[in-house]
Structures are given as C-alpha cells and as structure tokens.
Design goal:
With about 325 residues, the chain is of the alpha+beta class. The chain is built from nine helices and eight strands. Helices cover about 35% and strands about 15% of the residues.
Length: about 325
C-alpha cells in the first residue's frame, strides 16, 4: 500500500459521501458554504477549483483538505449519456457546452429569470421556449421605460443560450412511464409540492402509493393512496444504488467486490426527479479510466465506483 495515496483517497472519499443523497448535519454546513444556484453540483461542474475552494472558510482545514483531494481527481463526465436527465445539468458550467454572455445578462438571467439549469430554458413539455414565451417572461419583469433598448441585448444573449442547449434539448424529453412498477415523483402543476410514490400498473388500472424517505433517502410505502390531479407532472426518479454492480474489470478490487457480494441487498436511495437530479450516480469516471467498465457486462461507471481503492490507484498513477 502506498500510504500517501491511500490518505489522499480517504480525504476525497468524503466528497463522494457528500454527493450521496443521504442527509446529514455536516452536509448542511457544507451546503451553506458552497451556497450558489447549482448547489452541490459545483463539485463536478465545469468550474475552476480555486473558485470552489475559496468558498470554504480558511479555518475549516479538514473539509478544505477533503475538497482539494477530490478536485485533484478531476472526475470526468460521461458525455455519451444523453437522456432526460440532461435537464438537471447546469446551464452555465456545463461540460457539454460553454455560454458566454454579458455580465449584466448573466446576472439578469440567473437572478431575475432563474435560469440555472437546462430545464429552466424548457417548457412543461420539455421543449425549448419559443420567442413568444421568452418575450412574455421579459415583459413580466417590470421593464424600464426605455424597454426596446433594454430588451434587445437580453434577447441576443438568450439566443446564445438557446443555441448552446439546442443539441441536448432534443434528447431531454422524458419517455413514457413504463408498464412495470416503478418509483415516481408527483409534482404539483404550480410547483408548490413534490410527493414520491410507487406507481403500480395493472390491466386497465394505475395506482399511486405514497412513499416516505428515511434519513438515507431510502423509500418506504406509508399505506396511503395518492390521486394525482390534472396538470400534475409525474416522472420517474433518479436513484443512487450502493449495491455491488457487475465487476468493473482489470481495475477492480476483487477482494472488495467479493466482500460486497456477501452483503444483503440495500434499497437504492432516491436522489430526486430524473429531470432535476445532478449529479446523479451514473456517468462519472477518473481520467485514467474509460467511461465504461471492462467487465463481462460493460456499463457506465458511477460515482460509487470511486472507492478508496480506485482513488488510491489514480493518485499513485499521478505521482
């Protein structure tokens, strides 16, 4: 064992725990320090590492050490994965595209129009806003008297946002809900509340059963039926599954996988609606790895694969 590499891996592992959906008081403190319009996603977004570290108080030496170790890994996103989850990706610090707008446009779009994620430039049908819809949004912001002169520069920058997100927006529409049983999020039409439920489909009948999420964000049925109203949005949820997947191949830890295979299966944790969950567990790898595993059944690598063992190997390769 290379001790220094092992220590670096141990520090970095705390940030994987931070990204895991499980709730904990220490995460709320770090949330407060990293406060911003994309929240925890800043750890894996296309942001300069010093900008992230600057958000942490100098006196918080241990968490700064952990954050620095994680950022040094330069975790990469699997950009080949394109589905409705791209809606949750950040609009401004995205690994797929870059948007450059005027400073006042950035401030206006983020603080007034709340454009933070790809979903914020899409309508309720997951289609890009039309020109008329953008105009209505601008009209609702109480523009100044010199309205046309004020409005046109913003529309020019909005056009840059639309062009940048156009390619992935085509992949952003959620597919129909499956016929088999699944977990879903039921979002009120006015966005006022969100309820998780098990969707059960039988011949000619679909029912929804309320879910309660424990501290680990694992779901449990409460025994209460839910009756969605017209206009409510129902979509599948994104989960974080800590159960051991198919061995990842020649860079895996056989001993660790053998131990995990003997553990009882855990219920996956719910991160949130698929169009609002970033980063999700699936689709991340180290620069020294390929996006897919090399086992018998290749699959996209996941954040949970970034174990202390994998971290240690990566750190050792860089030294």
């Amino acid at each position: 064992m290379h001790w220094l590499s092992h220590c670096e891996a141990f520090y970095a592992q705390w940030m994987i725990r931070y990204l895991h959906p499980r709730r904990a008081p220490w995460k709320e403190i770090l949330d407060h320090w990293l406060h911003g319009h994309i929240g925890r996603a800043i750890l894996v977004a296309n942001v300069d590492r010093e900008d992230i570290l600057d958000k942490i108080p100098p006196g918080a030496t241990y968490i700064r050490r952990c954050l620095s170790a994680f950022l040094s890994l330069k975790v990469a996103q699997n950009l080949d994965l394109l589905d409705e989850t791209v809606q949750a990706e950040p609009a401004w610090y995205n690994h797929r595209f870059s948007i450059k707008v005027r400073k006042d446009s950035f401030k206006f779009l983020t603080e007034t129009l709340n454009v933070h994620h790809v979903s914020d430039v899409l309508d309720k049908n997951s289609k890009p806003f039309s020109d008329d819809e953008w105009n209505r949004l601008l009209d609702a912001t109480r523009p100044p008297t010199h309205y046309p002169e004020w409005k046109n520069p913003y529309l020019n920058d909005i056009d840059k946002v639309e062009r940048a997100t156009a390619r992935i927006a085509r992949k952003a529409r959620p597919p129909p809900l499956p016929d088999q049983e699944c977990w879903v999020a039921i979002i009120k039409s006015d966005q006022s509340s969100l309820t998780y439920a098990t969707r059960k489909a039988t011949i000619g009948r679909i029912t929804y059963h309320e879910l309660w999420l424990d501290l680990s964000q694992q779901p449990h049925e409460t025994g209460t039926r839910i009756y969605p109203q017209q206009g409510d949005v129902i979509e599948r949820v994104e989960t974080w599954d800590d159960n051991n997947s198919e061995p990842s191949g020649d860079d895996s830890d056989d001993e660790e996988e053998r131990d995990d295979s003997e553990k009882p299966k855990q219920t996956p944790a719910i991160i949130g609606p698929r169009t609002a969950s970033y980063p999700r567990n699936v689709g991340w790898h180290l620069p020294t790895q390929k996006p897919l595993t090399t086992g018998r059944k290749p699959r996209p690598r996941e954040l949970k694969d970034l174990t202390i063992h994998a971290h240690s190997r990566s750190t050792l390769h860089r030294t």
